[in-house]
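A.,

Following up on our hallway conversation. Structure tokens first:
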């Protein structure tokens, strides 16, 4: 197999971000001339709306993309209702949970074709 040019994507980033951050991150990456695919997704723990961004890039752009995600994806405090065990009635107590930021998976691309 021949060597790929430097501009050919050889890394795929899959970034799961909160829906509140998705538009901003998508606009910033578009301003950086980074192509992406946006898929709606749902968080498993709290069932909140997310967006999964699929980004194909050359390896040398990965730090730049990770910095943009770090700077624009915020962690937030959400409250979930947890029943008190010792209460005579099942009264829920609000419990803070930190959610958000970005969860990023980096995958090496072995083969790439545009059809």
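Then the amino acids I'd put at each of the 115 positions:
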């Amino acid at each position: 197999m021949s060597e790929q040019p430097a501009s050919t994507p050889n890394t795929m980033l899959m970034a799961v971000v909160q829906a509140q951050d998705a538009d901003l991150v998508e606009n910033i990456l578009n301003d950086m001339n980074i192509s992406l695919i946006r898929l709606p997704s749902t968080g498993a723990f709290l069932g909140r709306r997310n967006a999964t961004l699929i980004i194909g890039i050359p390896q040398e752009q990965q730090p730049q993309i990770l910095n943009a995600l770090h700077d624009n994806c915020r962690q937030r405090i959400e409250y979930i209702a947890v029943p008190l065990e010792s209460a005579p009635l099942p009264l829920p107590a609000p419990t803070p949970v930190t959610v958000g930021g970005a969860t990023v998976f980096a995958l090496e691309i072995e083969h790439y074709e545009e059809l």
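The chain has two helices and six strands. Curious whether your intuition agrees with the design.

B.
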